[in-house]
Amino acid sequence: MLTPAFDLSQDPDFLTIAIRVPYARVSEFDVYFKGVDFKFYAKPYFLRLTLPGRIVENGSEQGSYDADKGIFTIQLPKETPGQHFEGLNMLTALLAPRKSRTAKPLVEEIGTSEVSEEGVEDDDEFDWEIEQFPYNEVSESALNPQYHYGFGDLRSGVFQRLQDEFSDVVDIKDPDFTSAAERRQKRLAAELAKFDPDHYLADLFEDEAVEQVLKYNPWWTEMYSKMMASLGKSQEQENHAALVSFSEEEKYQLRKFVNKSYLLDKRAQRQVYYSLIDILLAYCYETRVTEGEKNVSAFVSVLVGIDYCTK
Known about the structure:
Shq1, Shq1_C, four-stranded antiparallel sheet
């Protein structure tokens, strides 16, 4: 089965799903929708979506087919009129089966009722005179000699295997055996060691190149201005989600992404969000200093930017 290209939009009362199936047989198709589930089948295409809001079958649903474009357009009523469905542009999440997850909890609670009942019976058998010892804190290095890093602190041992390949990008030696606090101290020391007063003064007084870079308008500046102008001042707050739109190529890439879920604590979640900002800032820096000209060394600037921002 093929996953067709699709697009979702909404108004206060309806959810509209446009599905592109140029090679389907119009006479042989099936549509199922209930609650947050939506399924579409037209050989050789199959589409299953888990929607961010509930839809209902009440007789007001509509469908049409554009034979020239090969697009089915299905309009489904919302169960709660006026509800705004979030994340309609997150195609990978919509394609994921409901309640699917790629990571399982490390600790699970099973047999709650049995444990509670047995707990009452075992109270008399518990040895309250068990020998105790003073608490002795064990250092993190003794528990795990390797430190973690990367997305959600889920990686370790990567630089140990690829130290030679990343020596020009990562200034810190042996990050697998260096804590986050030590990495930060070493990063500050490396920045201080690389500071050149003469270079700084030259950039301060001979700033033609810097001024040229600052005057450059990257592609997102013009795009943002056009979007805001099209929305209008009165709808600026209500339609902020409409600022994000993807091309057909970008939608295709989103459909190819694997939808994964991770068990991250609050500290790891905060680090992940900061890492995304690091990537955006590094990309913006690279785009500005090269004035939009892509080159083979661009990835080095991005990696170095992330390397410094995340420590």
